[in-house]
Amino acid sequence: MLIACCDGLTGFPEAIQATWANTTVQTCVVHLSRSSMRFVAYGDRKKSPPACASSTPPPTIEAAVSAREDFAAGELGRKYPAAVKTWENAWERFIPFLAFPPALRKVIYTTNATESLNYQLRKIIKNCGHFPNDQAAVKLLWRSATSKINAPGNAARAGPLRRNQQKTISSKAQPPPAGSRPWES
């Protein structure tokens, strides 16, 4: 594992580092910002969140340090020292993503995409109870995913099908053959 983005659970970064020593562990910036803002009164939250937590984070570590210090020295930093302390405590896990190019930062900035995928998978599986084996769970998830892709409303967005594609789409989608799925290699 090259990069892991964690949402602030205690001990999770340490467990990742113990298992994969060379992994870059990044704290989810969205979760960090939310946890620091919980110490700030609601009326003050929109005034001036830490610049390092804005939608466009600083381009360098030096700029991030400057933004953190400006926030700490500013009105809200003096009024809410616990918010400043939250950033200071998580600083070493916050700055790793600044070493990456902007395109990659968008991917490792937050855990929201992963959480969204897990939510969708849990929604599909929750009514089924248990599965006799892993293949049964994979088959259910595969059918659900392909039924949404092949739904009538989605066909128009995908564009017209070529003649050879029309023959291969069926109402009962089957998972791809074993070995063609990346998680089985």
Your description of this structure?
- The chain is mainly alpha-helical and 185 residues long.
- The chain contains eleven helices and two strands, in the order E-H-E-H-H-H-H-H-H-H-H-H-H.
- Helix 1 (12-19) links the parallel strand 1 and strand 2 (24-27).
- The radius of gyration is 22 Å and the shape is elongated.
- The chain starts with a strand and ends in a 17-residue tail after the last helix.
Q: Which terms would index this structure?
A:
11 helices; mainly alpha; 53% helix; 185 residues; two-stranded parallel ribbon; 2 strands
Helix and strand topology:
Layout: E1 3-6, H1 12-19, E2 24-27, H2 29-37, H3 61-73, H4 75-79, H5 81-89, H6 91-94, H7 102-108, H8 112-125, H9 134-149, H10 152-158, H11 163-168
Parallel strand pairs: 1-2
Helix pairs in contact: 2-5
Describe the structure concisely.
The chain has 185 residues and is mainly alpha-helical. The protein is 53% helix and 4% strand.
Counting DSSP H or I runs of 4 or more residues, the number of helices is 11
**Which secondary-structure class do the elements indicate?**
mainly alpha
Q: What percentage of the residues does DSSP assign to strands (E)?
A: under 5%
Q: Helix proportion of residues, in percent?
A: 40-55%
Q: Summarize the helix and strand pattern as letters.
A: EHEHHHHHHHHHH
Distance from first to last alpha carbon: 16 Å
